[in-house]
Amino acid sequence: MNSQLVDIIRAILDTQQAQAPTDASPTREATVAAGTVQYNARVKRSVHRLGDPYNKMYLLRSGRAASRAASRAAASPLAAASSKIRAPGIAPCRAPLSTTRALASPPARDRTREIVTQTINSIGSKREGQQYLKLFTSVSSQKFAVIKLGGAILTDYMDEVCRSLLFLYELGLYPVIVHGAGPQLNRLLEEAGVEPQFEEGIRVTDAKTLGIARRLFLEENMRLVDRLDELGVATRSLAGVFTADYLNKDKWQYVGKITKVNKAAIEKSIEAGYIPVLTSMAESEDGRLLNVNADVAAAELARALEPLKVVYLSEKGGLFDGDGGKISHINLDAEFENLMSQPWCRYGTRLKIKEIKELLDTLPRSSSVAIIHPSDLQKELFTDSGAGTLIRRGDKIQKVASVAEFEDLGALKATLIRDREGLDAEATVDRYVDYLNENPFTAYYDDAMQCLAIVMPPSKDRRMATLATLTITKSGWLTNVAENVFADIKKDYPQLAWTVSESDENLTWFFEKADGSFSKNGSVLFYYGCDFKDAAFTPVYDEFIHHGRAMLGDSNLESRLRRAAMAASESLRRTHAAQQARGYATLSRAARGVGPR
Q1: Positive or negative torsion for Cα 293, 295, 299, 305
Q2: CA dist., res. 437 & res. 195, Å (int)
Q3: What b/e string do you get for 481-494 counting C-beta neighbours within 10 Å, with b at 16 or more?
Q4: Predicted local confidence at residue 570, as pLDDT
Q5: Where a domain ends, among 359, 392, 425?
Q6: What is the mean pLDDT of residues 6-10?
Q7: pLDDT at 182 over 50
Q8: 189 vs 196, 220, 279, 291, 359, CA distance in Å?
């Protein structure tokens, strides 16, 4: 990704955070003599005035829909902010190295602003923006994405796809495009009087079919390249990338099984500033052209390149369950067996999930597969929520109810202490583990402990479960392990409350997980599964109003660490003051001529 654009995007994301407090006007803040309960008006769904003894305190009700709507609403001031940031006068991210029309563009500075504004509109929140900027700038251009286009997409959504690719190209992101032309081929075969034949879902390709397919694929490839060229995208149509053997000549004739991918041709194209555009045709070692399914070709390309994203553009926009609802996420490690047992998981859906699992099993855990509608490409690439069906290997989430069940106590302590370096931190964690030994809890974590959550169940003193401790690495946020952990918590605890600092960079994520929230003095109380008038929730709310984040007491590691740090700081202050006093006394004695005898 172009470094200057990255700097501009980061500046605008910082503007978003800096402007956030001013979005709520004074009339939208309730000040109370006993303290202030403030709320961010951008994520407000409805506000309820509470009676005594809460005297004009306000409740912010927020849910997933409200939070996402707020993110979209926030784009407007961001777009305005982008115009205030003077973009450097730079050329497009990569000067197209071709003699095509790819250089025809508006003035560089205006175009840069336009790209940045479009990027911000695609990003759901500052957290998502920072994460994905880091993600996309952490890999080489060749490892960004493989995007598969079906023949129907080329026919019905050519312009939408090309404009999305233009956007990526101008950000300095170079996906590798591979396409098929199945529907067009069926139509041409029918016109030529050739009956399409399939065996086990694979097209039987005789010599006549192969000849028609060859001409068609070349035409569709050039049509795509020409349209991208018109928009200013430097592309390179590549042939000879796939080497294949006959899959089974007796059964399918001229159908290939890919044995090798020529990565060098792809890498050189990207290094020169071109987006590679490939057909799914392959060649045998002796030069015979072979037909390969475009999905299969995209998978083999992904195995060779190991990209962050593998994207299948689909008219349907994702996979659907038995009730017709779109499946937004699939965590294969945790859900595959259950999915395969579902009565609705049949035919194409079943085959697609199995093929994607086979692919992801060969790729790094950071890789993912997305099945999306062409119009949602930017949203899928730049937000957590995405738009279609996102499939990852994910992580199996472990669940334990005692310290003894942790396989590695040292790893547990190291996880609890990470990013919490401070005075007496190790001793505080040791005392916290002792506390867990004596009290009921449920801990959720992945094998690598990128995410660890500790939930205290309802008790006599508190009738609602509380999320006492949550620690997540940056990698854990990027790989969505936090989503998987939270999903498991929600299965076990239908009601839950937790607190977060208002300065937490992942605050938007917590809003999405909550049914409602309160904010006071820099802390936010979140909850789900109950109404604010619920008998179980009222005591929790009372504790928060009077004690803030300290309400969770010894069950919350953050509270323990703060107390330990404050105690250590006070001890150092007293020691320093005593040393100063002794030094002053010595100087005074010396000034009076008094010294040791």
Answers
A1: positive
A2: 71
A3: bbbbbbbbbeeebe
A4: 54
A5: 392
A6: 59
A7: yes
A8: 7, 16, 19, 15, 31
Say if strands 329-331 and 389-392 run parallel, antiparallel, or are unpaired: parallel
Q: CB within 8 A of 281, min separation 6: which ones?
A: 213, 214, 217, 239, 242, 289, 290, 291, 292
* 81 in any annotated domain: no
pLDDT of residue 460: 84
Using DSSP's 3-state secondary structure scheme, residue 158 falls into helix
**Position 465, amino acid:** A
Letter for the amino acid at 558?
E
Q: Which of 399, 376, 398 is CA-nearest to residue 387?
A: 376
pLDDT digits (tens, 9 = 90+) for 216-245: 999 999 999 999 999 999 999 999 999 999
Q: What is d(CA 128, CA 145) in angstroms, rounded to the nearest whole number?
A: 18
Name the 3-class secondary structure at 121.
Answer: helix
Q: Within 232-275, where are the H helices? A: 249-252, 263-271
Residues 467 and 512 reside in one and the same domain: yes
Q: Under a CB-based contact definition with an 8 Å cutoff, are residues 243 and 288 in contact?
A: no
Taking the C-alpha atoms of residue 536 and residue 466, their distance in angstroms, rounded to an integer, is 11
Q: Which of 32-36, 137-141, 249-253, 499-503 has the lowest mean pLDDT?
A: 32-36
**Counting Cβ atoms within 10 Å, is residue 313 exposed (0-12), middle (13-18) or buried (19+)?**
buried
Tell me the H-state helices in 232-368: 249-252, 263-271, 294-305, 332-340, 347-360
* Residue 102 forms part of a structural domain: no
Q: Are residues 356 and 486 in the same domain?
A: no
Tokens of 307: 């990209």
Q: For residue 202, give its domain range.
A: 127-392
CB 146 within 8 A of CB 178: yes
254 Cβ partners below 8 Å, 6+ apart? 205, 206, 207, 209, 210, 246, 288, 289, 290, 291
Domain boundary among 371, 392, 413: 392
Return the CATH number at 374.
Answer: 3.40.1160.10
Distances (CA, A) of 514 to 67, 273, 436, 451, 502: 10, 44, 26, 19, 15
* Measured distance CA(336)–CA(394) in Å, rounded: 11
Residue type, 408: D
CB distance 559 to 553 below 8 Å: yes
What's residue 81's pLDDT?
38
Q: Is 483 in the same domain as 350? A: no
Do residues 347 and 415 share a domain?
no
Distance of CA 220 to the CA centre of its chain: 33
The candidate with the shortest Cα–Cα distance to 16, out of 57, 72, 87, is: 72
How many structural domains does the chain have? 2
